[in-house]
Design brief:
- The protein is flat and about 75 Å long.
- β6 and β7 form a beta hairpin.
- The chain contains one helix and seven strands.
- A three-stranded antiparallel β-sheet has the order 1-3-2, with no helix packed on it.
- It is an alpha+beta fold.
- GO terms for molecular function: manganese ion binding.
- This is Germin-like protein subfamily 1 member 7.
- It is found in: Secreted, Extracellular space, Apoplast.
- Pfam families: Cupin_1 (PF00190).
Length: 148
């Protein structure tokens, strides 16, 4: 009988403790954190999102610039598409801003294999032609097909 009561008390305490837990994304420590590979001096550094932050006094406009999205990608591959990714590795100033973007070039009848964007948003802009896009969710009533 004592073992049953102690087990019940232990389960109740664990349920109470787990109901008090919360999770969230940390807020950025500063407005911008231009990513650098390694600090030149250990006198001033902050480590955010797996990247060291550049001294804010040394930030320049080029830290927020990428040249190359105007260049079409090579679509002569099995899926008939090419993805040019622009993220914090290409634009160091994007660190902590939660922003990345891509240019996707499609050959006629090209495809972008199914993929996910956990905790992210996707915005599509079609410059030429027609694109069929399907959105799949865990709720079958909200799955849809869109034509752009």
């Amino acid at each position: 009988m004592k073992k049953g009561v102690s087990l019940l008390v232990a389960v109740a305490l664990m349920a109470l403790a787990s109901s008090l837990a919360s999770a969230s994304d940390p807020s950025p420590l500063q407005d911008t954190c231009v990513a650098i590979d390694a600090p030149k001096s250990w006198y001033f550094f902050i480590f955010v999102n797996g990247k060291f932050c550049k001294n804010p006094n040394l930030t320049v406009a080029e830290d927020f610039f990428y040249q190359g999205l105007n260049i079409p990608g090579n679509t002569t591959n099995r899926v008939g598409s090419n993805v040019t990714t622009v993220n914090v590795d290409a634009i160091p100033g994007l660190n902590t801003l939660g922003i990345s973007l891509v240019r996707i070039d499609y050959a006629p009848y090209g495809q972008n294999p199914p993929h996910t964007h956990p905790r992210a948003t996707e915005i599509l802009t079609v410059l030429e032609g027609t694109l069929l896009v399907g959105f799949v969710t865990s709720n079958p009533q909200t799955a849809s097909l869109a034509k752009f």
